[in-house]
Amino acid sequence: MKKKLCLLLTAAMLLASLAACSEKQSDGGEAETPADPGSSQAAAPEEVPETEEEKVTAESTLTVEDFGGREYRMISTNQDNRQVDIIAEELTGSTLNDLVYNRNVKVSELYKVSMTAEQADYGSINTMVQKDSRAGDMSYDLYLTNYTANSLASSGVLYDFYKLPSVRLDMAWWDQNEVSDLTIMGKLFMAIGDISPTELLTSECMLFNKRLFDNKNLTYPYPDALEGTWTLDKCFSIADGLTEDINGDGEIKVDDDLFSLTCWFDYGTACLYGAGGDFSHVDENGLVVLDIDLEKNVAIYEKLWKLFIDTQANYENQQHERSFKVFNDGRAYFCGITFQKIETFLRDMEDDYGVLPNPKFDEQQPNYSTCVSGAGSMVVVPASCTDPAFVGAMMEAMAAISYDMITPDLINVLASTKNVRDEQSSQIVQMIIRSRNHDTARNHDIQCDRFVETMIPKKDNEVASYFAKNEKMWNKNVEKLNEAYAKIGEG
Questions:
Q1: How confident is the model over 74-116, as pLDDT tens digits?
Q2: What is the DSSP letter of 147?
Q3: What is the pLDDT of residue 24?
Q4: Which long-range contacts (CB under 8 A, 24 or more apart) does 117-121 make?
C-alpha cells in the first residue's frame, strides 16, 4: 500500500490562527523548475524554512518578475460558489472574498500584472481546454476546473506540471497527497493546493449536535478524535439506539423523527476512505495498480452497515438538501458533510455542533484519511501553453501567496463558524485538512470506490458478489488508463 504524504501547513501559521479560537468566538532561494518525479528531491515535500527570529514566508521563496502590466487571465468553475477562488472585485466584508481580494492585489502589485477573472461551468471549461490544446491556442492563463479533467489528462491535451517552469510541486502550497497519487508514469496533469481555498472546503468531515449529546449525558468524542482513537466501532457505540420515533406514529420518517446520523449517500464513500479503504497505488514503474483487498473491504462494509443500517440512520439518496436539513433542525446526533456544505446548509442552525474526523477502521490504523469530494477543484494547463514561463511563474505566485495570506485565516474561518465555538474543533479541522486523500483510482473514475454508496441504499450486503461482478471491469479501466498515459508524449 502506498504511503500517504501529509499536506504540509506550517505549524507556526496554523497555531497562530487556531489559538484565536475559543468559546467566546462567534464567527529564500530562487524559483526553479520542479524536480523530476523520480528524483530524491521529489520524494520528500519541503516546508517553508523558519528561523528562531523570523518565520520565512512563502512569498520570500519566489523569484518576482516584472511583467510590465501584462494581462493575467483567469477562469474558474462556478460550481458551489467555487469562482470565489479568483473572483473578488472589491472588499465586501465577507471573509473569504476579502482574503482573495487582498491576495489578488498582492500578486498583481508584485508581478505588475493586470488581473481579469471569469467564471463558467466546469464542462464548458473542460471543453475550452480541449479546444485550445488542439488549436494551439490558450484562452486563459489559469484554468480552474474540477476532477472531471481526468478525461483530459488521459487524452493527452494537458501540459505536464513537472515541465512547467517555476512551479515547485514539492513545496507545501501544493497538496502533497495529490501530487503523489496523481503522478502517473512520471507525469502530472492536474494539480491543486492553496491556490484554491475552496478546495480545502470540499474535505469531508463528521459533525455532532452538542445539545442532543448533553440531553443524553453523552461525552463529546473530542478526546478520541484528538488522540487518534476515533473509530467506526466507537461511533457506532454512541449512535446505536439513538434513532427515535418522536411523533409516536410507529414509523421512522425523515421529516418527523430523530436520527442517529444523517448524510447524503456519498458520505458512505467518505467513511470507506476514512477507514483506510484505498483501492490503488502507483508502483515503482509509475503504473497504476489496483489494491483489491476483498477481506478488508468486507470488514469495513460490515462496520458501515452497522452505522448506517442497524442504527436506522437517515442515509439519504433522494433529496440532497433534506439530508442536511435534518441536522439543521436539531434532529440528528451526527451528520456527514463537507466544510463547504456547512455554510450552505447549516447557516441557520440554532444548536451548537462539534467537528470530528471521519472514523478510522480501528485504533491500529496509523492516520485519519479525509475523503475529498469529487467536486473539488483542479488546476490544468492546455498542452498548447504558449508561454510556460509566464503561466508557471504566476501559478506558483498565486499558490505561494495564498499559503501566506489565505490558508491560515481560512482554517480559522472553518474552525470558528457560527456554531463551532471550541478549541477542540479548531484542532480537529487542522487534522482533517492535513490528511486529505486523493486515491488514484477514485480520481480517474475507475469506479471501485462506489460500492458502499451503491449497496447501502439497497440494503445489499453481498460484497463478495459485487466485487466478483465488477473486478474485471475495474482492472480493464486501469489497463486503459495506463495505456493512455504511456502514449502521451510519444512522437
A1: 999 887 666 788 999 999 988 888 999 999 999 999 999 999 9
A2: G
A3: 33
A4: 117/74, 117/75, 117/76, 117/83, 117/86, 117/87, 118/73, 118/74, 118/75, 118/76, 118/87, 119/75, 119/76, 119/77, 119/78, 119/83, 119/87, 120/75, 120/77, 120/78, 121/77, 121/78, 121/79
pLDDT of residue 3: 34
- Hey, which bits of 1-100 come out as E strands? 70-77
Helix, strand, or coil (residue 83):
helix
Do residues 22 and 131 share a domain? Answer: yes
**Distance in angstroms (rounded) separating the CA atoms of residues 75 and 121:** 10
State yes or no: pLDDT of 17 exceeds 80: no
Per-residue confidence (pLDDT) for residue 418, from 0 to 100: 55
Between CA 60 and CA 62 the distance in angstroms is: 6
Tell me the mean pLDDT in the region 145-163.
93
Whether residues 361 and 388 share a domain: the answer is: no
Q: Are residues 265 and 299 in the same domain?
A: yes
- CA dist 358 and 95 (Å) reads 27
Look at residue 439 and give its three-state secondary structure.
Answer: coil
Let me know the angle formed at the C-alpha of 260 by 427 and 357, rounded to the nearest 5 degrees.
20
CA distance 177 to 192: 10
Q: Which ranges of 112-221 would DSSP assign to H, the alpha helix?
A: 122-135, 150-154, 176-182, 197-200, 210-215
User: What distance, in Å, lies between the first and last C-alpha atoms of the chain?
Assistant: 34
* pLDDT surpasses 90 at 348: no
The Cα 229–Cα 252 span in angstroms is: 32
| pTM above threshold 0.90 | no
Domain span holding position 282 = 204-371+435-487
Q: 466, 220, 206: which is closest to 334 by C-alpha?
A: 206
- Per cent of the chain over pLDDT 70 is 85
> Please, which pLDDT band fits residue 425 given cuts at 50, 70 and 90?
confident
> Residue 202's pLDDT is what?
86
pLDDT given for residue 488 in this prediction: 93
In this structure, the answer to whether residues 324 and 441 fall within a common structural domain is yes
DSSP per residue, 184-211: BTTB---B-BTT-HHHHTTBEEEEEEHH
Residue 422, classed as helix, strand or coil, is coil
Do 126 and 146 touch, CB atoms closer than 8 A?
no
The domain that holds 193 is classified in CATH as: 3.40.190.10
- Which residues on adjacent β-strands are paired with residue 118? 75
Q: Which run of H or of E encompasses 256? A: none
Residues constituting the chain:
491
Q: Distance of alpha carbon 431 from its chain centroid, rounded?
A: 13
